[in-house]
Amino acid sequence: MSRWWIRNVRLVFPGARVAPGSLVVAEGTILAIDPVDPPQDCQEADGGGKLLTPGLIDVHTHGIHTFSYEAGAEAMQAAARVLPRYGTTTVVPTVCPQQGPAMLDRLHATAKALSGATGVHLPGLHIEGPFIAVAGAACATLHGDLKLLDDMFAACCGRMAIMSLSPEQPGIIPVIERLREHGVVVFMTHTRATPEQTQRAIDAGVSHATHFYDVFPVPEETEPGVRPTGVVETVLANRGVSVDFIADGVHVHPMAIRTSAVTKGWQGVVAITDANIGAGLPAGEYDTPWGFRVRVSPGQAARNSVNNSLAGSALTMNAAMRNLMTWLDLPREQVWAMGTCNPARLLGLARTGVLAPGADADLVLWNDDLTPAKTWCRGSLFFDQDGELLK
Length: 391
Prior knowledge:
Largest sheet: 9 strands, mixed
Shape: globular
CATH topology of the largest domain: TIM Barrel
Structural class: alpha/beta
CATH architecture of the largest domain: Alpha-Beta Barrel
Helix content: 10-25%
Number of helices: 10
Distance between the termini: 14 Å
Number of strands: 22
Strand content: 25-35%
């Protein structure tokens, strides 16, 4: 495994500080920060004063370029090799289980594909649905079903990391409790739940709201002059519930992200892409595995080419971070936390998303425009702007 001395950089300690320094990487981990004596047996990388951060972590994403994570092992492996060029080093591939006899087989095949990928770290699957109340994109809408959930656990072979569901679905509380028993992180989404339904789900173990504001419909006004209250307000009122946003400027207004950064603090906000096929590619139309094509165009995200409805995003994580840097009046180290240590903490990845001795050597050296100059995954250089993809 590679050994590196990365020097002459500005180290970003997410949430804490930015300081000039250097670090040594060995055996896939950070061996030392600011060593007194330069090591003799390392490859040397002169950072030229650029920012060096932990790699970005995307907890909600469906694909990149022409690769859908649900399309099989070859697509998963190809995506894992592409993502480092955008500064992403950890991804939780997100799949939307479709009702039908082949659902469990598809889940099983996707879970198996995780182990064959090289490049980004793939800690498990994010299952969006099928216990969803408000349909959108490719999500199924089923009531809570413990038998089906247990079948899904078996199909995922222990690789289910996250499940997204809706608090108002009948039978959902036992599902949430079972998920927590298995150590699965539970997100809420696609919901028009009441405050009471939302609070019950939070009390049962839901800890996060994903693509917040998107597919969280505003409750109907039942009496003029009385502002309706629903799931959004309940999430904002619960300090222990974090939120994430598709930071592309299309899915949610930047003011909503600023509001959440005030109510949650920088520690409670996470950046995601919800990227679909077409993310990172030029404008055009691209095939998906869901029976429709997506159209990607500047400033329009990813849309169903037939009805023009939103179908995920065309966002990459480095672009999401660039947008947040523009929109949020926060110290830069706190904004960096939204793409690094915050999602790592959400997933329980204690050695990821931080710069510290013993931490995973997932690192990105950034150009001033927040395009990666170099990306290391577990200490191996997987992207170099001068050599494109190395692996």
